């Protein structure tokens, strides 16, 4: 058995809730694509960014864990950190756009119409 497998698994376990949210979000955005195409498109992009961010974060943590004894200067990894922050920003922006995206007006049912409610 590979000796780095437990390390990789230990780094991936804390990210499992985020992974579940990303996968559930992708499934929901694909299932709502016919009803709300614009919102579903933005949600798909946002949750795909979240999924990519999780994978890159685990890879980054794994790289640091296996290379912790190296005296190499880590300033060359600045671009990776910057990319992760930009990806996180893109995730939040696209999910926020999906939340506030214009949807067709739904016709309220009589049970939900406040004007016809008796006092």
UniProtKB/TrEMBL annotation:
Superkingdom assignment: Bacteria
Keywords noted in UniProt: Membrane, Transmembrane, Transmembrane helix
Parts of the chain that traverse the membrane: 6-30, 42-65, 77-101
Name by which UniProt lists this protein: Uncharacterized protein
């Amino acid at each position: 058995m590979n000796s780095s497998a437990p390390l990789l698994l230990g780094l991936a376990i804390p990210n499992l809730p985020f992974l579940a949210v990303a996968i559930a979000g992708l499934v929901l955005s694909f299932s709502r694509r016919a009803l709300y195409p614009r919102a579903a498109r933005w949600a798909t992009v946002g949750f795909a960014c979240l999924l990519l961010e999780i994978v890159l974060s685990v890879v980054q943590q794994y790289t640091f864990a296996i290379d912790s004894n190296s005296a190499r200067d880590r300033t060359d990894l600045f671009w990776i950190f910057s990319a992760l922050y930009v990806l996180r920003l893109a995730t939040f922006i696209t999910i926020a756009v999906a939340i506030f995206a214009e949807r067709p007006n739904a016709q309220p049912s009589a049970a939900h119409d406040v004007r016809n409610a008796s006092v």
